[in-house]
Structures are given as structure tokens and as C-alpha cells.
Design a protein that fits this description.
heterodimer; A: 422 residues; five-stranded mixed sheet; 14 strands; 45% helix; B: 124 residues; Non-ribosomal Peptide Synthetase Peptidyl Carrier Protein, Chain A; 36% helix; disordered C terminus
């Protein structure tokens, strides 16, 4: 129940909207979320959700309109990132606050981000073209003969094709890191879930990744190199080097950031396009590769939400959020807002302009966006060169998560392109 | 660490078992300095004592520096007790290195050179 009156006309049964549980992974793992977001955007754009057992918080606000989502993400003077940026940290202390970029506010955030951004920006991203292309080809290599395959399993390897070269992680470690990242982002996926349950899976994945990066940082501290781990170890913020915990935590965050975004953009797009003639249509139009990738990003919105906490009372679409209250900005909803996107439920590879919020907004805009776009363009180009058509081969299975939107299984059959067509 | 909280205040589920070697006592001192919790028993779990992954990465560096060995970080993260850690570290130490003095080793410092936080839970 909202403690404050909901603005706007309540055409829908208000009791129904009050019962909506946006913290329910089952809702977010179904296409029903689009209808719920649609109703919330129309009738209750700033929606209070009580949560029992959420530490010091009593619940959270949800914003679903593009305008509000953009504001909450970009307005760091009103909203802090240092008190948890994901719902699973609601009401709890974030140990990474002030140490991990995503959990640090300006001005310290900017001083921490600048050197890393330089290493991951557009001009630096080009240095990785060959590496990423080789990684993408390796993923598709097993499937060039066509036949049936699980696109979700194949794409699980894509993040390391990017993060591996960036962090200078040996290729031999990629499968392990892919598995650990899976435990941290898709803990409910049978491929990753431990017999002890999802909480144990998350904890184990998180700790093993931290242990891995702790060992890697120690090794790089001994013999520096040109990779990002060495950069994090070398750089200074306000005249002080980063603590080892901050270095390790940023490595962890970069890997998970990539693991969340990269596989699920193609899976969401392919789940929609496979079995239709729109796959072939896009595949034949190399001039639409860039705009199509942007549309895939909007369509997939793999990061469903980010959370902030109000520093002061803030007015959002007529509702006053009190200081200290958590606000969850639903990126997936903003990217389907008809106020900004014409025919938002249509996958339009020509869409322009396409100012989607899949990478967030403001100072915390995804630092890996250049590399992610590069990897996605290379992936789709390679996919189109490999397969003439893709058709569904069974029911896809969505990831169950309040944060990650994507597929844990996407069985497809590929029909290889004839050599002379390539 | 004069402002250390007791392990009982952290609600440790198991009774206190003191460290039983010089190496374990030395490791326990490093934990106390990082966590601001005292005393630390040999079977206490680092994360149950209030540690988090960032502090564990700092502690690993403390251990590297204080003992001059580089133990696999998996022990601290996955089997995070003094007893387990001592068993891992002991295998790496030259035979003559134990027992060690608990008095004359340099205090634990973070990489930033800043003092260890008095209480990592100050803001809770």
C-alpha cells in the first residue's frame, strides 16, 4: 500500500496495482512485466512497495516512466549510489560504498572513473577489436555446421571474450570465470546452482571471484603490465592509491557488468527474431547493424533496474520521496515508455533516434559501453555471416532475477549460410 | 585497537576456542586489526565476525606482508577460519620459520597507508 495518494486516474482496479510485487523474480521473468510496467507508468508512476525484512528500509519506491528513471539515475545531487544500487542490498550496508565506482558518488567517483574510462573509451576499445573478434569466432566455431544449439549457453562465453583481454586474464581461466560469473548473476540457473541452494550459490560465486581477483592483483602488483588490473593498482585518487579491496572489487564489478549485459542482449533479440523473416531481413542489411544493436539493447534492457537512495526530499511526477528512502529505477520499463519510443513493443532495427537507457544515465553510465557495443556488433555480424536463418527449437527459459533480464536457455536451430554467400 | 567490539556482540554461534600456535595467534592479531573485533577464536568465520569481501582482500595483503608468504586467497574467502588459514600458510613457511615472535612485527597497514578502521560497522 502506498502511504501517499497515487496521482493520476486509476482506471485499473487499484487493489490490483497495490498487490503488484516488483521484488518478485517470477514476475520479472515473465512477459507479464511489460503489462505491469505499462499500468504503473500510466496510473502510478511513483509506486511505493512495502518490504518486510529489508534491514533498515521499510520498502522502496519504483519509478517506471522514462523521464523519472533518467532523473533518478542522472541526478546524483538528489540521489546517492553509496547505500546500495541493487534491490538485494535494500536496507543493508554496501561494503563497496566509496570503493567501487558504481557505489561511489561524485566528486570521488569522477576521480576514480577518469583513468579507467580512458582505458575503456572509444579509442581504447578499438585496440581490442582483434581480440574480441577472435573470441566471437571461437564461440560460433562449434556451430558453423548448423543444427541445434543453446544460444544462451554459447553466449555465456561472450563476456570473457571482452573482459579477458581487458583484465589480462589467461584464456585457460575463462571457463572458470564464466561459471563463477554465472553463479553470481543467474544463481537460479540449473547450470550454476549448487545443491545447497541459490543463496549459497551466490555467496560461493562471489567469494571465489573475489579470491581469484585477489590472487590476480597480487601477481600484477609484483610484475605490472598494461592491463586494467595493473592500472587500478597504479592509479591514485586524491593522492592515495586504491586499497586492495577497492582494486579487487572494481575487477569484480567490471566482470559482472559485462556478464550481465553482453549475453542477454543477443538472447533477448534472438528469442524475438528467431523463426521470423525479420532475422533474415536484418542479416541482409549490414547498414542496419549499428541501429539494430541499439534496438537490441533497448529491447533486452538486461539490467532491469538500478537503485538509489534520496539524499533529500525529492518530487518525482507529483510524489514526494522522503530523504533516506530507496528509489528503484526500472530501466526495462523506461525503454518501453511510449512517451519516448513510438511503437515501443516493436523491435525496429531502423529505430532512430533511440535514446534508450540500457546503459544507465548520468555519471554512472556504463563504463564498458564502448566495448559492449563493439562486442555486440562483432557478434551479430559474425552470427549473420554464419547463419542464413535461426528457428526456435523448444521453449526458451528466462533467468529468474529481479535484476537480470535474459535467458538461461534458448534452444535454436541454425541453418548455415552457404560458403559462396558469405 | 582500543574500540574493538567483542565476538559475543557479533553473535558468534560457536564458543570461543583460542588460537593454539604462534602462527594462529599472529593471524588472529591481523584479524583483530582489520575487523575491530576481539578476541578472535580459531574456528571463527571471518565473514560472521563482520568481515566483507573488500576487507578480506585487504587482510590477504596484511597476511602476505606480515608472514612473507603468498597463500592462495581461496582459503580466506572460502574456508575463512584462523585454523584453516594457519594450515594453508604453514605449508608455505620454511620449517625454521615457526614459532614466530608475536611482539616485533610491523602493525598492519592498508595499502593506502591509512589506519585500519576502528569499527567497520560504524555506519550500521
Amino acid at each position: 500500500m502506498s502511504p501517499r495518494p497515487a496521482p493520476g486516474p486509476a482506471r485499473l482496479d487499484p487493489a490490483q496495482l497495490s498487490r503488484v510485487d516488483l521484488a518478485d523474480p517470477a514476475l520479472l521473468a515473465s512477459d507479464r512485466r511489460y503489462a505491469v510496467w505499462d499500468q504503473l507508468r500510466q496510473h502510478r508512476p511513483v509506486h511505493w512497495q512495502p518490504v518486510p525484512d529489508a534491514g533498515t528500509a521499510r520498502g522502496f519506491w519504483s519509478v517506471t516512466r522514462y523521464r523519472d528513471v533518467n532523473r533518478v539515475l542522472a541526478d546524483h545531487t538528489c540521489f546517492t549510489s553509496e547505500r546500495g544500487t541493487l534491490l538485494n542490498l535494500l536496507g543493508r550496508r554496501d561494503p563497496a560504498a566509496g570503493q567501487q565506482m558504481a557505489a561511489t558518488d561524485p566528486p570521488r567517483h569522477g576521480r576514480m572513473r577518469l583513468p579507467v574510462q580512458r582505458a575503456m573509451g572509444a579509442s581504447s576499445a578499438r585496440r581490442y577489436v582483434r581480440d574480441v573478434q577472435a573470441g566471437v569466432r571461437a564461440l560460433l566455431a562449434d556451430h558453423t555446421a548448423g543444427g541445434s544449439f543453446d544460444a544462451a549457453t554459447m553466449l555465456a562465453g561472450l563476456p570473457l571474450a571482452v573482459v579477458g583481454p581487458l583484465l589480462g586474464v589467461p584464456v585457460a581461466d575463462w571457463p572458470d570465470l564464466t561459471r563463477l560469473a554465472g553463479m553470481c548473476t543467474a544463481e537460479d540457473d540449473p547450470a550454476y546452482r549448487l545443491p545447497e541452494g541459490t543463496a549459497a550459490t551466490l555467496r560461493r560465486g562471489h567469494r571465489e571471484l573475489f579470491a581469484y581477483f585477489t590472487d590476480l592483483a597480487r601477481q600484477r602488483a609484483r610484475s605490472g603490465s598494461e592491463d586494467l588490473v595493473s592500472l587500478l593498482l597504479r592509479m591514485e585518487v586524491d593522492g592515495q592509491p586504491l586499497g586492495r579491496g577497492a582494486v579487487v572489487s572494481n575487477c569484480y564489478s567490471l566482470l559482472l557488468g559485462a556478464s550481465v549485459t553482453l549475453p542477454h542482449v543477443p538472447t533477448a533479440a534472438l528469442a524475438h527474431l528467431a523463426g521470423t523473416d525479420r532475422y533474415a531481413h536484418w542479416a541482409h542489411r549490414s547498414d542496419l547493424l549499428t541501429s539494430g544493436v541499439e534496438e537490441a539493447l533497448r529491447w533486452a534492457s538486461p539490467a532491469s533496474h538500478f537503485m538509489r537512495v534520496a539524499r533529500r526530499p525529492v518530487d518525482l511526477s507529483g510524489v514526494t520521496v522522503a530523504a533516506g528512502e530507496a528509489v528503484v529505477a526500472w530501466l526495462g520499463s523506461a525503454n518501453r515508455d511510449p512517451a519516448v519510443f513510438a511503437r515501443p513493443d516493436e523491435f525496429d532495427v531502423r529505430r532512430a533516434p533511440n535514446r534508450h537507457l540500457a546503459f544507465g544515465a548520468g555519471r554512472h553510465y556504463c563504463i564498458g559501453s564502448h566495448l559492449a557495443r563493439l562486442a555486440l556488433r562483432l557478434f551479430f555480424a559474425e552470427l549473420f555471416a554464419t547463419f542464413e536463418s535461426l528457428t526456435p527449437d523448444g521453449e526458451p527459459v528466462r533467468v529468474r532475477s529481479t535484476f537480470l533480464s535474459g535467458y538461461q536457455q534458448l534452444p535454436l536451430v541454425g541453418r548455415p549460410r552457404r560458403r559462396d554467400d558469405r | 585497537m582500543t574500540t574493538a567490539v567483542s565476538r559475543d556482540q557479533r553473535g558468534m554461534p560457536s564458543p570461543y576456542v583460542p588460537p593454539d600456535s604462534e602462527l594462529e595467534r599472529r593471524l588472529a592479531q591481523l584479524w583483530v586489526a582489520r575487523l575491530g573485533v576481539s578476541p578472535v577464536g580459531r574456528h571463527d568465520d571471518f565473514f560472521q565476525l563482520g568481515g566483507d569481501s573488500l576487507l578480506a582482500a585487504e587482510l590477504q595483503l596484511d597476511i602476505d606482508r606480515a608472514l612473507g608468504v603468498e597463500a592462495d586467497a581461496a582459503t580466506l574467502f572460502v574456508a575463512p577460519t584462523i585454523a584453516e588459514l594457519a594450515a594453508t600458510v604453514r605449508d608455505l613457511l620454511p620449517p625454521s620459520a615457526e614459532p614466530m615472535s608475536t611482539v616485533d612485527y610491523p602493525p598492519a597497514r592498508s595499502t593506502a597507508g591509512a589506519a585500519v578502521p576502528a569499527s567497520p560497522l560504524a555506519d550500521e
